[in-house]
Every structure is written in C-alpha cells, then in structure tokens.
Amino acid sequence: MNRKKLSRLQELLWTMTESGFVSGANCMVWQGGEEQCYYEAGMRDLAAGLPMTRDTIFRLYSMSKPVTAAAAMILLEEGQIDLYDPVSDFLPGFRDQKVMANGVPTPVKRPVVIQDLLNMTSGLTYPGEGCPSEFLTNQLMDEVITRMSSPQALTTHEIMNRLGTIPLAFQPGEKWQYGMSADVLGAVIEIVSGMRFGDFLRQRIFEPLGMNDTGFFVPREKQGRLAKVYRDIGKGLEEFHFPHLGISNDMETPPAFESGGAGLVSTIDDYARFAQMLLQKGSFGNVTLLSPQTVTFMSQAHLAPSLDPYVRQWESLAGCSYANLMRIMKDPGAAISISRAGEFGWDGWLGAYMTVDPADDMILLLMYQKTDTGTTAYTRKIRNVVFSALD
User: Fold this and answer.
1) Is pLDDT of 101 > 90?
2) Which of 22, 126, 215, 320 lies 20 to 30 Å from 350, alpha-carbon distance?
3) CB–CB of 34/248 below 8 Å?
C-alpha cells in the first residue's frame, strides 16, 4: 500500500478530534499480512485528560454482531445447529408466535428459524415507536434497564423468552429489518452449548485468538483504559451515561444480560485478531476456529434479491446486501464510498467500524465512542483514503 497516502488518515483523525466531532479515535489498516498503519488522536477521557492509546477499550455495540455470527458458525460446523431449526426448539417463548397484520395479532405462516436471526429477517425489531413490535420491545428493554443493577436483573434467557411473546413486525422471511435477532441468537448459543454465552465466546473465540481485553465487562484493573462515551446535542461534546439497549455504560460488573447484538467491549488490536481470522478464512497464527468453507459461506450474501432494497434504505448500506449479521458489498458502483465487491463487515452505535476486503487481502478498523454515529462521513473519508492507497 502507498504509505504516503495512508498518512492522510492521521490528518483525518486530528480533524475529527480538533473539530469536536469526537473526543478521540484510533484507526488501523492491515494488508498483505502486515500492519500497514496505526494512528490515534485526541482523548479517551476529556475530563481526566487521558489520551487515546492503542490499548484503549471501546464499547463495540453492534460490532458485537459479527462475533456472535462466528460463534453460531462454530456450532453449525459441529452439526449442533441447522439454519432451519425453529428458534422455538430452544426458547419456549417463541412458540405459537404472532405477527401484527392490520393491527391484529395473527399466527405466523412459519416459525422464526436460526437463519432469520442471522439475516435479520425474523420480524423482531429494536425498541422504538414505529409499530406495536417496536413499542412493546421498548417496554421490555425499559424493564431490563430498571432491573439491571438489582438482584432481580433479567438474564439473557428471560429477556429473549419474553421477546418471543411480542408480536413480530412482519412474517418471518418476508422483509428485512434491523433488530434484536443477534441477542436471540446469543441465547440460542447458550442453550445449545450448555454454558453462558460469554463463557462460550471466551473459550471458543477470545482465548484461542489472544483477545485478552474482549468481553462483556471491564475488570477493575482495566477500567482506566475504558474510553468515555460522549454525545453532542448541539452544545458540544458531553459525557453520556445512560445504559442504552440494556448495556451498562460503566461496564464494571459481569451483566446478567449478555447481549449478542451489542454487549461486548474490545480494543483495536483485539478486534484486529478477530478480523484477521475472518480474512484468513478461519485461521489466525497457529489457531483455526473455522474452516475456509465456513468463512466463505459466512461472508456471502444470502438474502433474496427482493429483500436487498430494504437493506439499501440505509444510506450507509448503498450497494450492499446483508447476511450473518454483516453487510456484504454486492454493487460497488452503487456505493457512496470507494468499495470492493465481496468486502464485508459492520459498525456500532458508538462509531466502531470494521471492513474485511478479501480481494485486496485488507482489513480496516476504526474506533471511537460517540452516540448515534456508526458509519459517518468521516468513516467514508477514511475508507476512500484507504482504498485509494492500494497499489
């Protein structure tokens, strides 16, 4: 790669922080089996004056989803699950499900299956006010937050069984909508594996890959490396402390709810190990987590073409399809940043971002902590610099 062009990433990170868009950020590019660059700028904690560092710990939010998908692929390889297994086989709350049709709860045409969870075609939603499913999911997650610090905190199983009783927003498989499917998948993995979801991830993914700073909470001795979360509601950056989507902001103690869709923390180096495993078709160093065939399957688009327009309603997903809790680039000509067919990845609510580009043997990672960001104009500018630096 052209290192001179890549050096523009440092300038972009400085602009992001000096303009007050974020408090701090770091960025990394791997290509051809080598780290091509790492840059950082700004602060992880403005009030304490602590700088952004390479070992800063970030809340991943939806960048947790690809990890959950990889965990499901492990069970798929072992013959422990089938993509057409009904979720109700594992979680009784999903039995006799209903879907809202003209305002009336109506029996589903077919049950939600594991593939629906991986492809966001389940009819499950995130909390909101746009339809009865969103409203009732909002009520459930409010209860999760209210009880999360008490002895009566709801567990992953309890929450997902309750979620299963909420009428779906649409018939399974007929539409695509981003929602709590990955959280349900985490609960399924618990049932199938016979262990807590966090323990499964630690034993089967984090420890083998050497991801020592990744998990569902941050131990006391590492709390000083946890970046603060910021928001900007028109008055500049201010700290944000609310437990969004049932995830504790301080991350101080092991949670009762281990969210497969949003609950993990990690560092840029830890996540790079996971991303390299995907780039290298299931292996990292001397460790093999998945077969090349499984990673190829995991990183290919599986949605029916008729569902792609639902995905592309999101500006950041122009040109993409979706599968296995990740975006998959199908049409680079329709994208709004320089792109490559077959690249895949995801982002998070606080700005964490990953793309894996098999055609160019490349990984791009970006980390920061600001609410309601995900893929931004700065993310696209960084992508454009990186893809244009390929020789």
Assistant:
1) no
2) 320
3) no
For the segment 78-88, what is each residue's pLDDT rounded down to a tens digit?
999 999 999 99
Please check whether residue 190 is in contact with residue 157, taking contact to mean a CB–CB distance below 8 angstroms: yes
Output the CATH code of domain 3-63+198-388: 3.40.710.10
Please state which architecture CATH assigns to domain 74-195: 3-Layer(aba) Sandwich (3.40)
Structure tokens at 343: 């690249």
SS3 letters for 189-236?
Answer: HHHHHCCCHHHHHHHHHHHHHCCCCCECCCCHHHHHHECCCEEECCCC
pLDDT in tens, 181-240: 999 999 999 999 999 999 999 999 999 999 999 999 999 999 999 999 999 999 999 999
C-beta separation of 168 from 123 below 8 A: yes
Beta bridge partners of 354: 346, 365
Distance CA 231, CA 239 (A): 6
Q: Give the count of beta carbons closer than 10 Å to the beta carbon of residue 170.
A: 20
CB 187 within 8 A of CB 241: no
| Amino acid at residue number 169 | A
Question: Per-residue confidence at 281, pLDDT binned at 50, 70, 90?
Answer: very high
* Structural tokens at position 8: 């523009």
Q: Which residues pair with 206 in a beta bridge?
A: none
Say how many C-beta atoms besides its own lie within 10 A of residue 143's C-beta.
14
> Of 230, 247, 241, nearest to 371 (Cα)?
230
Q: pTM of the prediction?
A: 0.97
Q: Are 317 and 326 in contact (CB under 8 A)?
A: no
Contact 320, 61 (CB under 8 A): no
Residue type, 160: M
DSSP at 151: T
Q: Which two tokens stand for residue 391?
A: 């020789």
Output the pLDDT for position 301. Answer: 82
Whether 74-195 and 3-63+198-388 are alike in CATH topology: the answer is yes
355 Cβ contact list (under 8 Å, min separation 6): 343, 344, 345, 363, 364, 383
